[in-house]
């Protein structure tokens, strides 16, 4: 039987509404009463509408010059403001290393330094340095780790959207009990609604449909003024993975191909929400099946 439900939005009320087209054969999602929904549905339609207004205005394309660090020197590139991304620059700068570039460090004339997603359009003149996902530079390791686990949470949200045929509301969890885990809260579900086999099936689905396809994490930075037009409280960054969209508090890595081993290992009831948590290892850091099983087991104990 096809289930069709809508659950109340988690957290601040800006969590994405998840709608899906598939039902796991072993899923046992129970009947619930349909509550009120947040007036703002952060979905792919909203993302595409804002993108068309901000980044696809072809009538008046402004050009900006950025300098890209290549070795010990810089090379200048002419970009389309609010359209071209660091990924485009990276393709010209170093094709061989492009697959491992996870973030871009943006240095502005004011002295400000920011870290951006590789797929976030560039808005101002700046110097760009690319950060490898395997960096050992202590200046960058923390931000890379944060971006990686945030991206895993976004991937889990996308997997839930496509892998379970119910309309639910979810919110990504930016801080988890253990450093090497990620999580998503789903409002309205109980621990008994998803079995251990369901979690295994969802993990395999993530690897097959997302990780193997190296799908990009698209980023859209929305200004205060435009955010208010769409009923959002203030400026936000939206992340789109396939047809899943969520608000993110920081940069993500470039694409799902940078995620290697990925497993949903735990579920925990927190008031009216079900927290699904998982563990992952980057694709550039392969581990044996035996070691991966140990990692999964230890992560599962902490949930």
Give a written overview of the molecule.
The protein has 303 residues and is of the alpha+beta class. The protein has 2 domains: 17-51 and 144-301, Threonyl-trna Synthetase, Chain A, domain 2 (Threonyl-tRNA Synthetase, Chain A, domain 2); 63-140, Beta-grasp domain (Ubiquitin-like (UB roll), Roll). Helices cover 26% and strands 28% of the residues. It is built from 6 helices and 13 strands. The strands form 3 sheets. The protein has a 5-stranded antiparallel beta sheet with strand order 1-7-8-13-12, sandwiched between helices. A 5-stranded mixed beta sheet has the order 3-2-6-4-5, sandwiched between helices. The longest helix has 26 residues, at 138-163. The radius of gyration is 20 Å and the shape is globular. The model is unreliable at 1-39 (pLDDT under 50).
Task: Please outline the helices and strands.
Blueprint: E1 17-18, H1 44-54, E2 63-70, E3 73-80, H2 86-93, E4 101-107, E5 113-117, E6 127-132, H3 138-163, E7 168-173, E8 182-187, H4 196-211, E9 218-222, H5 224-229, E10 236-241, E11 244-248, E12 259-270, E13 273-282, H6 289-301
Parallel strand pairs: 2-6
Antiparallel strand pairs: 1-7, 2-3, 4-5, 4-6, 7-8, 8-13, 9-10, 10-11, 12-13
Helix pairs in contact: 3-4
């Amino acid at each position: 039987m096809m289930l069709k439900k809508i659950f109340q939005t988690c957290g601040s009320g800006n969590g994405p509404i998840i709608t899906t087209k598939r039902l796991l054969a072993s899923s046992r999602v129970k009947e619930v009463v349909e509550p009120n929904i947040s007036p703002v549905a952060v979905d792919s339609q909203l993302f595409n509408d804002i993108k068309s207004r901000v980044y696809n205005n072809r009538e008046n394309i402004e050009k900006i010059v950025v300098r890209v660090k290549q070795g010990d020197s810089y090379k200048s590139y002419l970009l389309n403001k609010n359209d071209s991304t660091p990924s485009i620059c990276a393709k010209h700068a170093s094709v061989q290393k492009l697959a491992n570039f996870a973030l871009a460090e943006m240095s502005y004339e004011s002295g400000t330094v920011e870290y951006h997603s590789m797929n976030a359009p560039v808005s101002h003149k700046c110097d760009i340095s690319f950060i490898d996902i395997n960096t050992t530079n202590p200046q960058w390791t923390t931000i890379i780790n944060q971006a990686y686990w945030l991206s895993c949470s976004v991937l889990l949200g996308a997997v839930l959207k496509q892998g379970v045929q119910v309309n639910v509301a979810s919110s990504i969890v930016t801080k988890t009990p253990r450093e090497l885990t990620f999580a998503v809260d789903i409002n309205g579900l109980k621990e008994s609604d998803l079995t251990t086999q369901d979690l295994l099936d969802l993990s395999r689905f993530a690897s097959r449909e997302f990780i193997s396809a190296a799908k990009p994490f698209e980023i859209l930075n929305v200004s205060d003024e435009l955010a208010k037009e769409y009923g959002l409280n203030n400026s936000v960054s939206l992340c789109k993975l396939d047809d899943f969209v969520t608000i993110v508090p920081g940069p993500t890595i470039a694409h799902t191909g940078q995620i290697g081993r990925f497993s949903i290992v735990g579920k925990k009831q927190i008031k009216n929400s079900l927290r699904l948590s998982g563990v992952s290892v980057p694709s550039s850091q392969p581990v044996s099946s035996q070691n991966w099983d140990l990692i999964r087991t230890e992560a599962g104990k902490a949930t």
